[in-house]
Amino acid sequence: MQAMTYLARREHTAFELKIKLQKKSFSSKCIQNVLDVLKEENLLSEVRYALQFIESRQRKSPEGRALMSQRLAAKGVDREAAERALDELYSEEQIIEYVERAYELALRKVGKDKARMVLAKKGFSSYEVRLGLERLF
Fold first, then answer.
1. What is the pLDDT of residues 64-97, one digit of tens each?
2. 3-state class (DSSP) for residue 117
3. Cα three-residue angle 115-122-89, rounded to 5 degrees
4. What is the pLDDT of residues 106-123, one digit of tens each?
5. Cβ neighbour number for residue 87 with a 10 Å cutoff
6. Cβ distance 103 to 91 under 8 Å?
7. 52: CB partners within 8 A, 6+ apart
């Protein structure tokens, strides 16, 4: 029941739920059983979590695929789920939008001279930057 309470608030990774349930002193066997049932019932989905996480981050401060992949790994999202979500949300058209938005934000903060450097720090590859800025210039 505790796991459902957490999931009712927001999506979680299995790793996050495991940590939270361990803090509540549930046994490892009990936690694993609950996680297995939640996954079977599709109440716990790493892909769904990753999609929501990426969309949220991209609204606030767009980042490149490489950096987003690292962020997902740090959150405990398994590699396969992360790749599925990244593939879905990093189409060529979406990359262009992310780069354009990140560039606009960088222009406001650091000016034209340093804006491209900011894009690199945000994890955009040189290909993504070139692709995204093509329409602007």
1. 999 999 999 999 999 999 999 999 999 999 999 9
2. helix
3. 120
4. 999 999 999 999 999 999
5. 10
6. no
7. 10, 11
